[in-house]
Fold each of these.
Amino acid sequence: MEKAHKILEIEDIHTYYGESHVIQGLSLFIHAQEAVSILGRNGVGKTTTLRSLMGLTPPRSGAITIDGQNTTRWPAHRIAKLGVAYVPAERHIFPGLTVEENLKMAARPGNGDNSWNLERVYAQFPVLADRTKQDGATLSGGEQQMLAIGRALISNPKLIILDEPSQGLAPLIVDHVTDIVKNFCVGSGMTLLVVEQNYRMALKVASRHYLMSTKGQIAGTATTQELVENQQIILDHLAV
Ligand SMILES: Nc1ncnc2c1ncn2[C@@H]1O[C@H](COP(=O)(O)OP(=O)(O)OP(=O)(O)O)[C@@H](O)[C@H]1O
Ligand SMILES: [Mg+2]
């Protein structure tokens, strides 16, 4: 069998906020169509890792390759244009724009039967279909997360990146968002990178996991099956 190609490869990056050396030598990769998570406690550098690869806080050294291109020094808009959709933990719904306007701003043509457009988003997210003319900023937390994910999908990305999609949501809503991520972001030709402190959600959506210990360092990597069979691995790395 042909070896799956790496859609993302991060090689030994170091990222700083001013003098603060937050990511100290991080390496990881994701194969095309893989669903991968980064698990780690508060403040270990998960969001900074995503900001590094999105060009928002570029690394000072090391290399990032996305779909065969060295994107290490690319500005954020160019990385987005390459087909990378980033859903930050704060969701960044544009206030003053309706649900529909939020979606339309992000829409980009896809190819094939699997591609996303406004009709498909409304068919799969009835909550949004009921609120097309409502200001996006007035939605509940769960609805905003669905809009943020819908907005990522409608850009028909190669790689979708979610930062703590379960953050601040009630358990039932987390289940709903988990189903959405599972059904639409995984196994439909898209590649998923999800960052979570909620390892239960991460185990449901991703098949391989990087355990981040501190300062962006990867303490281990494991498949979902390995983590399910040996929960101690999670406790060792994520216990407070
Ligand atoms: N803008 C900033 N300026 C300076 N330091 C920052 C900034 N943002 C984050 N940090 C620090 O960098 C480190 C990594 O933060 P980061 O947000 O990447 O962690 P995280 O794993 O996403 O944490 P959380 O679980 O809280 O989301 C932390 O020590 C944090 O305090
Ligand atoms: Mg974070």
Amino acid sequence: MSKRVIVFGASGQLGVELCAELSRRGYEVRGYSRAMLDVSSAERVERTLAEFDPAAVFNAAAYNQVDVAEREPLAAYEANALAVRNLALACHQNDARLVHFSTDYVFDGMAGRPYTETDAVHPLGAYAVSKLAGELYAQAYLSRPLIVRTSGVFGPGGRHTARGNFPELMLRLAREGKPIRVVEDHVASPTYAPGLASRSIEMLERNLDGIFHCGGGEAVSWFDYAKLIFEKAGIHADLKPTNEREYRTTARRPKFSALENARMRQCGITPMPSLADAVADYIAVRGA
Ligand SMILES: NC(=O)c1ccc[n+]([C@@H]2O[C@H](COP(=O)([O-])OP(=O)(O)OC[C@H]3O[C@@H](n4cnc5c(N)ncnc54)[C@H](OP(=O)(O)O)[C@@H]3O)[C@@H](O)[C@H]2O)c1
């Protein structure tokens, strides 16, 4: 395999980590932020792949505004579904591997235990449907796409993105001295972006394909996750638990969407770091 790779969504939390890790491993990386290249332009995607002739394309670009997507489902669908069709078609044409990222929200959360790759999907809203459609487009046009589902991504890049991430939101609210209420009845598996980046590169280097779950490896409520963030940051915050009955959101979300990294384990991919270590590293890297 040639060492030429493209990363779309290169200025997002995952995109920056992919570019950094690929460069560290000696790849010739072209990273495109949204300002440089909007993946919903089929023509630009096609031209970019034809010109650079990469061996692999990582798609870290995504529309991630779960609640806003209920107002503008078409915008979510364009970025998360039709753009993946553009990428899959261009990868097919150029004989490039596609590594695409998806979400724990393809599940409805009713299982009450971490989801494996063989569990049935049932998305609950516009964002979730658009991400599932992205998976289907990748599978429709490519015989061996690599689709990596993840959950609650946080990485140092989130300090500089408009959307930010959960740790940054918590730390900001604590700084402002505001009372903080976080749901204790919703469970996910928060995932550290540097770990997700290196594991997905490892999967590609091992020539794996199909769907993989790459969550943080631990099922944790958002309340307990917030507690851990404050503990590792050494901050006292006015944190209290709430629940979905008190804290309503526009979009329906799965109550229990933690991911079991079953295929990663079967294939011998390096396990993800513990959540405690990941949060401690995040706090150290981001600085005070
Ligand atoms: N963040 C999470 O909690 C979470 C949870 C589950 C799954 N995931 C999945 O994990 C992957 C990485 O997420 P992340 O946390 O790194 O997201 P992120 O920080 O929000 O980054 C996404 C990037 O995609 C860019 N983008 C959006 N629309 C685009 C378009 N049409 N063309 C090109 N770039 C576009 C965004 O640019 P702008 O900022 O300029 O819009 C942003 O830089 C995504 O597939 C996401 O769906 C994330």
